[in-house]
Amino acid sequence: MSFQRSVSYLAATLLALSTSLAFAQTPSEQAQDHPPHHEGKEAWQQQSHPHQMAKRLHHMMKVLHATEDQRHQILLIAENARHAMAVELAAIPKEAKLTRRAIRDKNMTQARADIHAVLTPEQRVKLDEYMAKHQPQHKQG
Question: What residue stretch is flagged as signal peptide (predicted)?
């Protein structure tokens, strides 16, 4: 797995955690936005409970042996990304799914770059190994 994909996965985990707290939807809204039979990473992120996402994030930081400063920075990145996305998404109607996805993608890209700057080269290797082991497998269709 590439480093960029690993960091993207971590960033997606961070953003999924933060946005799920900011934009809780009713079950009927979730059914409209996301059909129940998605596959792959996106489905895993959408279906995970915020508490589970937080546990995964903390576990990843533990596996990486992140310093207290790095932990603080990563959590701050997640909070800043959540806030930036909340502000932007609040101005977009729920019906504008493509615009909402573009905003999420932009914020994930920025979070990915910010997280990249926080990790040491050794931690990047550990992250790649962790992601390869724990990332949901895409079904070949």
Answer: 1-24
